[in-house]
Design goal:
The chain has 231 residues and is mostly helical. The chain has helices spanning 2-22, 30-42, 44-54, 63-92, 101-126, 128-135, 138-157, 163-186, 195-217, 223-229.
Length: 231
């Protein structure tokens, strides 16, 4: 059992370390990052409630419509919105959130806490094979979706005139990629569509890497940018 739990936690912890070291110019407090990671695990509770009680209300008889609504709304939106609530409540308004890149790192920490607990549930039930598969698929997908949300949250924090629009855009972007990934897996009548999940994952990882680079390059704490900002 301990081996399974270790396998389940390993990818989330590895990605958390990777993202932490991507924050090159002004590190966030480790205590706050750990708090966000833990609260991300807690955020799985409202997500489960929304999926369990909201899913039946959205149920449709038609195969494609049912899977579409289930993937994008019952699962995708429920999970991403739950993560957003905890991110917004416990990280977004903190004084430590003082540059756009912080939107990415705090959003990712919350999402990885969610992904870690979810992964423990799946792996302890499904075994090592499930753990190894999710290590390279579902967990990185959670992280990449969080980068999308955090990228727009970082813009929103320092753009009060467009704050609400940008925050909503972040939720919708994360929901879109989450829903597209799940939809491709849910539609099992057409096996070739399952490859769409892999394509979705590759696309969102590419976009997330670009988002990380953009916020990192534009950091006000980057030496080149500090020099330019001086009168």
């Amino acid at each position: 059992m301990l081996t399974l739990i270790a396998i389940a936690l390993a990818p989330a912890l590895a990605i958390a370390v990777f993202i932490y070291f991507k924050d090159k110019h002004e590190k966030e407090p480790l205590g706050l990052l750990l708090k966000c990671f833990f609260l991300g695990g807690v955020s799985i509770v409202p997500a489960i409630i929304l999926e369990v009680y909201g899913g039946p209300l959205l149920a449709l008889d038609e195969y494609w419509s049912h899977n579409f609504v289930h993937a994008f709304v019952a699962v995708g939106f429920s999970e991403e919105f739950s993560k957003y609530i905890f991110f917004k409540r416990f990280a977004y308004n903190r004084a430590e959130f003082n540059e756009p890149f912080d939107g990415i790192i705090y959003s990712v920490m919350v999402s990885l806490g969610f992904a870690a607990l979810e992964n423990v549930m799946y792996v302890t039930d499904g075994g090592i094979g499930v753990g190894l598969m999710r290590m390279f698929t579902a967990v990185p997908a959670h992280a990449a979706n969080a980068v999308m949300m955090g990228y727009f949250a970082g813009l929103a924090k320092f753009n009060p005139q467009r704050e609400k629009t940008l925050l909503i855009t972040g939720i919708l972007a994360a929901t879109f990629f989450h829903g597209a990934y799940d939809f491709c897996l849910f539609v099992n009548k057409v096996p070739v569509i399952a490859f769409g999940a892999l394509i979705t994952l590759i696309v969102v990882i590419i976009l997330s890497r670009k988002a990380i680079k953009m916020h990192s390059d534009n950091s006000p704490f980057r030496p080149e940018n500090i020099f330019r900002a001086k009168p």
